[in-house]
Amino acid sequence: MRIVLGITGASGAIFGIRTLETLHELGVETHLILSRWARTTISSETRYPVAQVEKLASFLHHQDNQAAPVSSGSFKTDGMIVAPCSMKTLAAIRHGYGETLICRAADVVLKERRKLVLLARESPFSEIHLENMLALTRMGAVIFPPVPAFYNQPQSVEDMVSHIVGRVLDQFGLDAAGLNRWSGFDAGCKNEPNC
Predict the structure, then answer these.
(1) Which of 62, 86, 95, 146 is 20 to 30 A from 133 via CA?
(2) Which CATH superfamily is domain 2-170 in?
(3) pTM
(4) What is the pLDDT of residues 48-104, one digit of tens each?
(5) For residues 30 and 17, is the Cβ–Cβ distance under 8 A?
(6) In which band, very low, low, confident or very high, does the pLDDT at 181 lie, cut at 50, 70 and 90?
(7) H helix or E strand, kind and range, residue 79
(8) In terms of DSSP H, where are the helices of the chain?
(9) φ, ψ for residue 89, nearest 5 deg
(10) Distance in angstroms (rounded) separating the CA atoms of residues 28 and 102
């Protein structure tokens, strides 16, 4: 399997890092693109040096390298994840504005009808954001805001991040170790029509 991973400068760099770590553990070939602001966000929000994040990737591509393999549809991939995805990047992808390699690679994934998962990171969403997300959904992208689940009773922020990353990787048929899946619960009622 081969997945492109873009990390933008939106808050939530840990989602991209944890995705990269998990893909690395699963033996998936990764093509990493860090935006200029991703480097700043990684340094300010996490304990990870940027160089350590880059080493987790199978291949690293500079954001300005439009000649990278991932900029062509003839380079086969299983899809792309942008985690986190800034609203600027989301808008550029929606409009086919491939100025950066992240946006061009996402454009390629859309035109080739491959899986594109965008961890849209903003709150609250404006009407513009929502219209861009709806348009991208109609184009085949998966809009995946990193909203935590609580049925799995997370004990830490790390638990919440790992659960979200596991659910993102479900989109590619990949099983992340330790993902606590919903299995229902017994509400304590027997033979009642409203149970």
Answers:
(1) 62
(2) Flavin prenyltransferase-like (3.40.50.1950)
(3) 0.93
(4) 999 999 999 999 999 999 999 999 999 999 999 999 999 999 999 999 999 999 999
(5) no
(6) confident
(7) strand 79-85
(8) 13-25, 36-45, 50-56, 87-94, 101-111, 127-139, 157-170
(9) -65, -40
(10) 19
Confidence at 1, pLDDT banded by 50, 70, 90: very high
The tokens describing 11, both together, are 């808050």
Closest C-alpha to 11, from 168, 116, 123: 123
185: nearest Cα among 176, 195, 177: 195
Q: Measure the CA–CA gap between 165 and 175, rounded to whole angstroms.
A: 10
Residues in the chain, total: 195
**CA dist., res. 45 & res. 1, Å (int):** 30
Q: Name which of 177, 149, 183, 151 is nearest 164 in CA terms.
A: 149
pLDDT at 135 over 70: yes
Tokens found for residue 162: 């790992």
Averaged pLDDT, 146-154: 93
Question: Do residues 15 and 84 make contact, with C-beta atoms less than 8 angstroms apart?
Answer: yes
CB 79 within 8 A of CB 73: no
Would the pLDDT of 193 be above 80? no
| Distinct helix (H) and strand (E) counts, the chain | 7, 6
Alpha-carbon gap, residue 68 to 17, rounded angstroms: 21
- pLDDT tens for 107-127 read 999 999 999 999 999 999 999
